[in-house]
Input
Amino acid sequence: MFIAMNRFRVAPGAEADFEHMWLTRDVYLRTVPGFESFQLLRGPAGEDHVLYASHTVWATKAAFEDWTRSQSFRDAHRNAGQATTRSLYNGPPQFEGFEVLQTVDRE
Ligand code: HEM
Output
């Protein structure tokens, strides 16, 4: 299993626009091979930003990497990184990928 996270530092005052953009987007993930689940996370507020993260769970690292080269990735990012949305952020997102070493589920 592989977890891919992108952390966003959202400028104070831009939280509602950021959340609206994400919560009303077209989702292209549901039928991607190896995709398991997605969460949009809101974290703590710092002095100059509010931390958010996109969190995806994949069957394998290879499935995640295949998605990053797929049309559904390009479709999902058609509007990402443009000047109009850049003002929502304090800097570019920070990506982190994790190999899952252990999973514990409720019985
Ligand atoms: C390997 C790097 C990246 C990963 C793992 C990633 C992850 C994701 C995921 C899982 C989604 C949702 C896709 C869907 O629902 O179909 C998404 C959408 C989005 N990503 Fe990324 N992303 C990456 C790179 C970037 C970069 C570089 C930016 C900013 C420049 C960005 C900004 C966004 C935005 C704003 C959306 C929502 C799109 C919209 O509603 O128009 N992502 N990303």
Summary: The helical segments are 15-23, 61-68, 71-76, 83-86. The chain has a mean pLDDT of 95.
